[in-house]
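Handout, section B. The chain below has 409 residues.
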Amino acid sequence: MHSLRFHFTIPRYIFGKTMGRLFPSLLWNSGLSCLKYQQMPDPVLPNDHWVKIKVTYGGICGSDLHLIHLHDSPSTSPFASFPFTIGHETVGRISEVGLAVKNLQVGDRVTVDPVLSCMVRGLPNPCEACRRGDYSLCSHMTDGDIAPGLMIGACRDTGGSWSTYLVAHQSQVLKLPDEINDLNGVLIEPFSCALHGVMRNPPRDDDTVLVVGAGTIGICVVAALRALDIACKIVVVSKYDVQTKLALHYGADEVIGLKGKDYKSIYEIAEALKARVLKPVIGPPVIQGGAHIVYECVGNSRSVHDALRFAQSGGKVVLLGLAGILDHIDWTTVWLNELDVRGSFAYSTEEFNGKRMRTMQIAIELMKLGKVDLSPLITHRFPLEKYKDALSTVVNKGKEACLKAVFEP
């Protein structure tokens, strides 16, 4: 099978960090980059509790682009094993079943919860986080039956969805009902990221919420709020026309567009949030008032800075954008306004209709009930061998009117 794999070496990293700044396309167009398209043997089952899955669609995630652009913090490197096949958003069909696997069979149409926590790693004594259901916070992601990795798509033993096949532990595999098509199936993972952030940090019906960023995660935050029947006012900051249209489609009350490097109007955002704009002696405007909760869904310096300044006193900022090492962020508003700044990583388990459920199972249930259809988010599909075109399209999403792209291995 063919796979898109990430090969980390110091020379490749130095080449990417130096030349990638000047010519970003070299990060996927050059044989000297960390990204390699190569022929690989199919991944093998680590033990009898695993299954092999033939990938139908593999999503291209913003975190994958962070990886390829070498924007990830080195602090995440112990939680990966190189080289690995990229891709953690998956829908496909089971093609092989281990002898100890129960309730799954060849031909089942499935999605995968990619987190590689204690149970997946075959550890008999789960860590405290896994025992309470917060398996995305597992403290043993470098131990057990398989190589280090936070999730499928960062572990050399599992493969990833940017290939024909991957393997998954039976506990990670979720069967899809007929009501959910494959396009929705591949979006269960990113939708669950948004769902986790919202369900752990829910607004009240009379709150005003600001969503900074209208890419896949930002749109999924809007969709999650409405699918959960939360009637809060939703204001979204978007960059491209395709994002604006989809944000409104999924239930945003107001969308503020970006213009160049600045907002079309700081005053427009402030008005939507019923906030005041104050002028400091020097520097950018100061916002007094703002949103009760800000969901930051981009992860760069500007988006985090604005998430902090557009939150009202005593408000909350939820970081979903996978921010890494960022410069030039003014943290004054955090202590001055006593903000609650919360991180949000992946998904785990939540309270839903009086039961404790896996986040991805809740996502499946909401789709099955017709509460959300995310298939319009997928604007582009590419065969794996056209990966250069795919990555160029995603990076130039405004020009290409691209919201979400997937591979068809």
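Note. The chain has a mean pLDDT of 95. Compare this with the example in section A.
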